[in-house]
Amino acid sequence: MPVQIRHKTPFTLSKPRALVVAVPPMHSNVNLSRIVRAAGCCGVRKIICCGNASVNAKIARETGIDLEIEPHRTLSPELIRKWREKGWRIVGLEQTDRSFWLHEYAFPEKTFLVVGNERLGILPEILRELDDVVEIPMYGLPFSHNAATATAIAMYEYCRQHRN
User: Fold this and answer.
1) Using an 8 Å Cβ cutoff, are 68 and 47 in contact?
2) E strand or H helix at 49, and its extent?
3) What is the pLDDT of residues 23-76, one digit of tens each?
4) H or E stretch covering 100
């Protein structure tokens, strides 16, 4: 009979993940904190955190010093363009008329993942800046996942494709 291992030592990556997650202002500190926790589990090294939300340490848990949270007042088209100029592919996580299904999309190694706000999604001026858009197919109601859950699913898919 197998023996449960409560906390297994994380895998060691051969190099830092080239995934940056950009989070717009969130209405809920819980959502931001859950995104931070999932990012830590995925070995993400940087989150762009916009707005005034703060991370709840009890929810984010032992995310650790390897994750840099870079604060910005807003997620602006100019900020996105700077990342594109540095060679990053700008990918939005949103339902649109030109979205790729998440499980069919090949994430470039250098991905800048833009997350939508819980209520508004990705704003139109930001949507125009995206290189690609991915969505998680829905097979029932409600019409979408919670922002933190969707972000965790997208980060996991990136990690599955780039096992390192």
Assistant:
1) yes
2) strand 46-50
3) 999 988 899 999 999 999 999 999 999 998 788 778 887 776 688 899 999 999
4) strand 100-101
Rounded Cα distance, 88 and 29, in Å: 27
| C-alpha to C-alpha distance for 129 and 84, rounded to whole angstroms | 9
Q: Distance between CA atoms of 53 and 148, rounded to whole angstroms?
A: 14
Count the alpha carbons within 13 Å of 122 in the hemisphere toward its beta carbon.
Answer: 27
The answer to whether residues 83 and 113 touch, using CB atoms and an 8 Å cutoff, is no
Q: What is the pLDDT of residues 92-122, one digit of tens each?
A: 999 999 999 999 999 999 999 999 998 899 9
DSSP H helices in the chain: 29-42, 57-60, 77-85, 124-127, 147-161
* The residue to which tokens 């940056």 are assigned: 20
In Å, how far are 31, 81, 138, 139 from 77, measured between CA atoms?
A: 23, 6, 29, 32
How far is C-alpha 75 from the geometric centre of its chain's CA atoms?
Answer: 14
